[in-house]
């Protein structure tokens, strides 16, 4: 029986996650359900192989219903020190902290 190469598995899983989320971005305006399925598969792969989904890719879809964000399906508000992205499908609000600008001293 062969020993599992975990580094190779996690590398392949990461590539597959990236590919699936990019495909979801391409298909979100054509077939919304298919795009959601791609995100669901990417999340399952990440959990199965214990690979983190990069933050840039996580911000592309709703955490609760897994639908990719597209025009008319989410609302963005800027509040004190955070950006609030609200999914209009399920009502989930993602709060993203932003760093305050540092004051430049003369």
TrEMBL record:
Its EC number is 3.1.26.5. GO terms for molecular function: ribonuclease P activity; zinc ion binding. The keyword Cytoplasm applies. InterPro entries: RNP4, Rpr2/Snm1/Rpp21. It catalyses: Endonucleolytic cleavage of RNA, removing 5'-extranucleotides from tRNA precursor. It is an enzyme of class 3 (hydrolase). Binds 1 zinc ion per subunit. Its cofactor is Zn(2+). Pfam families: Rpr2 (PF04032). GO terms for cellular component: cytoplasm; ribonuclease P complex. It comes from the Archaea. It is found in: Cytoplasm. The keyword Coiled coil does not apply. One of its GO terms (biological process) is tRNA 5'-leader removal. HAMAP family: RNase_P_4. Consists of a catalytic RNA component and at least 4-5 protein subunits. Belongs to the eukaryotic/archaeal RNase P protein component 4 family. Part of ribonuclease P, a protein complex that generates mature tRNA molecules by cleaving their 5'-ends. This is Ribonuclease P protein component 4. It comes from Archaeoglobus fulgidus.
């Amino acid at each position: 029986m062969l020993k599992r190469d975990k580094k190779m598995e996690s590398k392949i899983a990461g590539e597959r996650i990236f590919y699936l989320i990019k495909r979801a971005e391409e298909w979100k305006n054509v077939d919304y359900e298919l795009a959601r399925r791609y995100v669901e598969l990417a999340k399952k792969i990440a959990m199965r192989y214990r690979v983190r989904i990069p933050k840039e890719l996580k911000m592309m879809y709703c955490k609760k219903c897994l639908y990719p964000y597209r025009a008319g399906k989410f609302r963005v508000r800027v509040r004190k020190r955070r950006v609030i992205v609200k999914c209009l499908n399920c009502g989930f609000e993602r709060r993203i902290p932003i760093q305050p600008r540092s004051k430049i001293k003369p």
